[in-house]
Amino acid sequence: MGRGQPDSRAVDRRDFDRRCDLGGIVSETEINPIDQGPLPGVVAGTWVIDPAHSSVGFSVRHLMSRVRGRFTDFAGEITIADTPEQSSATVSIELASVHTGNEIRDNQLRSNDFFDVERTPKMTFSSTGVRSVGGSWVLTGDLTIRDVTKGVEIELEFLGVDPTGLQGEQRVGFDGRTSIRRSDFGVSFGLPIEGGKIVISDHVDIHLEIEAALSA
Q: 216: how many CB neighbours lie within 10 A of its CB?
């Protein structure tokens, strides 16, 4: 399947699994997968990101493997306009909530070597535009880390809308992917010296799995 046309069965199963984790029961026919139009079934309004059913993750090469991590404390809103290209999004992430499964590594990531959470506790994103590209979307915006702001582009995949959610509320889902150079944000610890081996790559992949509920 193309990036903008995900397998609706996979979308349904993902939502079904999430709902069953909470002890709920849902029929697969309740989920509205992508069918036609830019964002079918989505109403204009403010959608609040549900951190319990969303993920902000990253991966980076370390020596001959990759380290994967995520942030557990974040909040954000998506404002969907009648014209989708006029929509916007804002997200704030607590950098101290970084989790890679290794306490020593996590503490170093919180230190001045990387995020310097005592001085700059948050990473933020504020969108500046959104455009349709084929069957998918690209969200542009300003990403701020350690008081340095750079423009980024996030490739988005619309997963569909659930009109009844967990307790009758409408929910929408997106997957997002982007990459950054950490040195652009003043994070240079462990970068390879010319001619030397790669200890920690400059290239960081960011992975977003977002579920948001329509605000009353």
A: 7
Cβ–Cβ < 8 Å for 86, 102: no
Q: What is the pTM of this model?
A: 0.80
Upper half-sphere CA count for residue 84 (Cβ side, 13 Å): 16
> Pick from 8, 22, 5: which is nearest to 165 by CA?
22
- H or E segment and range at residue 13: helix 8-21
User: 147-195 pLDDT, tens per residue?
Assistant: 999 999 999 999 999 999 888 999 999 999 999 999 999 999 988 666 6
Backbone angles phi, psi at 95, to 5 degrees: -65, -25
pLDDT tens per residue, range 57-66: 999 998 878 9
User: Which residues contact residue 195 at a Cβ distance below 8 angstroms, ignoring those fewer than 6 apart?
Assistant: none
Farthest CA pair distance, the chain: 58
Give the SS3 label for residue 216.
Answer: coil
Q: How far apart are CA 53 and CA 128, in angstroms?
A: 25
Distance, in Å, from the CA atom of 3 to the CA atom of 131, rounded to the nearest integer, reads 15
